[in-house]
Design goal:
alpha/beta; Elongation Factor Tu (Ef-tu), domain 3; Rossmann fold; Ubiquitin-like (UB roll); 3 domains; 5-stranded parallel β-sheet; 7 helices; 18 strands; binds FE2/S2 (inorganic) cluster
Length: about 325
């Protein structure tokens, strides 16, 4: 892993609960290049790592911009960034920007739907699509204009005819009409979704007739309710894990996750959400049938990978991991 030291060059209060952070290299050098849809994993308060998407023009190696929603009931990362980080502070990221949400640049046209803080990767995509001269339209869903982050920049990037703002006043039934927006897919058209789980699930449902491989999404939180999660974990059993590279074998107890046992065995893996949706803790799966509980991997990836923060083994199976 190659850590990168960043300095906070500017902070802007975009809405009541969203701040943007402009980050530059702490040693005044160039930052690594990056693509639209990328995120960085910021180390927070010495013991947490949180993923935040970049929103500015892709490939900008002078500055990165991200925006963060202060989540009152979150795990503390966003509150720390809002309440403790000031201009001039140094931040560390574990590695260069990673992209789990790339544009398909061969597509003929692009529809982007974002909700709330989900605008961040979509704005970087807008810059890229504008630079490519590609046909695109953004639908951005928020409660009100006051709660719309990057309003002027969005209009500037997408053009006033290239964006539709949907303000629902807090009542989703007054918001975007997904069946109208997604009812007919044009040839070569791709869809990108980012935002709360409810919006993404509803949009994926409305686009269920779109061609395979044309609907792309990135979650900013789990789309599962606490009840759904509790139902999945009831009746968990211990299982064996072998680490092919290091030769370590251990038993994962019923009340622990694979990642907790990896930490206990001093095996370092990337992580952020610890909730199965961010994709950071993806590890190669060499053999054994996994009980996949994440919201990140698609069916094809599940043959060869596992998210070790939430997924387990099917009953009686031993998992062999590629670490
Ligand atoms: S840490 Fe986010 S999916 Fe595992």
């Amino acid at each position: 892993m190659s850590q990168i030291k960043l300095k906070v060059a500017d902070i802007q209060q975009l809405t009541e609960n969203i701040k943007s952070f402009e980050l530059v290299s702490a040693d005044s050098g160039h930052l690594p290049s990056w693509e639209a849809g990328s995120h960085i994993d910021i180390e927070i308060d010495g013991h947490m790592r949180r993923s935040y998407s970049l929103s500015n023009r892709p490939g900008d190696t002078e500055r990165w911009v991200t925006a963060i929603l202060r989540e009152e009931n979150g795990t503390g990362g966003s509150k720390f960034m809002h309440d403790n980080v000031a201009i001039g502070d140094e931040l560390t990221i574990a590695e260069p920007p990673t992209n789990h949400f790339p544009l398909d640049e061969k597509a003929d046209s692009h529809v982007l739907i974002g909700g709330g803080i989900g605008i961040t990767p979509l704005l970087s995509m807008g810059y890229r699509l504008k630079d490519m001269g590609a046909e695109c339209h953004l639908h951005y869903c928020t409660k009100s204009k006051e709660e719309t982050a990057f309003y002027d920049e969005i209009v500037d990037v997408f053009g006033s005819a290239g964006v539709t703002f949907h303000h629902d006043g807090g009542d989703p039934s007054r918001g975007i009409k997904l069946d109208d927006v997604l009812g007919a897919q044009e040839d070569g058209q791709h869809l990108y979704l980012c935002g709360p789980g409810g919006l993404i699930n509803a949009a994926r449902e409305a686009a269920s007739h779109w061609r395979d491989g044309t609907v792309h999404f990135e979650l900013f939180a789990s789309a599962k309710s606490e009840d759904e999660k509790a139902e999945t974990t009831s009746g968990d059993q211990p299982f064996e894990v072998e680490l092919k590279e290091s030769g370590i074998t251990f038993t994962v107890p019923a009340d622990k996750s694979i990642i907790e046992l990896l930490w206990a065995n001093e095996v370092d893996v990337m992580y952020a959400c610890e909730d199965g949706w961010c994709g950071n803790c993806k590890v190669g799966l060499i053999s054994g049938k996994a009980d996949h509980r994440d919201e990140f991997l698609d069916e094809a990836d599940r043959e060869n990978f596992i998210q070790v923060c939430v997924s387990r083994a099917m009953p009686g199976e031993k998992l062999v991991l590629d670490i």
